[in-house]
């Protein structure tokens, strides 16, 4: 099964916001760099997939990113945090506490002295019409990003609160805390008023293939 790993760039009146930082480019040459050859994950990554290269393709330098929102700190969502030393990283406080020193959240990619983390609690404003919303279940303190776009309406970048569209359709997902995770799925559905085309799930190849990818945009 092939699944995508992606990040979102939001252009706001208050600066550029990045949602998740993707996989570290060490995986281009060494696909098993994080979890070793025994892992069932086989990472396929090319140099143009690296977040800094993707941003460059739309004319953005890393130091222009004002805020990074990490849904959570797994290596496919926080792998390039180190590329953004000028940014403020918004992460739920209970997630930071859970991830610190936890081998399932390799600190080499995010627990970096020069990075500035802003621990948040619950819903928090990021910019006008943009807020983080707590969606725990996949991990304590997991969060998603809700943005009210002028033309598209509200969209939600789910992170691993929803891997696939089917998770949202059926209201079920495999998670360490399934009760919390199912509440989070219902919450996301309520945020997009059941219009699942406006819920951007984390790892759904079919859904992802139909989205506008940079340089195309949603407005
Ligand atoms: Zn993920």
Search tags:
219 residues, alpha/beta, Metallo-beta-lactamase, Chain A, five-stranded mixed sheet, 6 helices, 20% helix, 23% strand, globular, binds zinc ion
Structure write-up:
- This protein has 219 residues and is an alpha/beta fold.
- Helices cover 20% and strands 23% of the residues.
- The chain has 6 helices and 10 strands.
- The longest helix has 14 residues, at 178-191.
- The mean pLDDT is 97.
- It binds zinc ion.
Show the helix and strand layout.
Layout: E1 8-12, E2 15-19, H1 26-29, H2 51-57, E3 65-69, E4 88-92, H3 93-99, E5 116-120, E6 124-127, E7 130-134, E8 143-149, E9 153-159, H4 165-170, H5 178-191, E10 199-201, H6 205-209
Parallel strand pairs: 2-3, 3-4, 4-5, 9-10
Antiparallel strand pairs: 1-2, 6-7, 7-8, 8-9
Bound molecules: zinc ion.
Helix content: 10-25%
Tally of distinct domains: 1
What name is given to the CATH topology? Metallo-beta-lactamase, Chain A
* Helix count from the secondary structure assignment: 6
CATH architecture descriptor name: 4-Layer Sandwich
Order of helices and strands: EEHHEEHEEEEEHHEH
What percent strand?
Answer: 15-25%
Distance between the termini: 31 Å
- Given helix and strand content, the structural type is alpha/beta
Strand order of the largest sheet: 1-2-3-4-5
User: Which ligands occur here?
Assistant: zinc ion
Outline: globular
State the major sheet: 5 strands, mixed
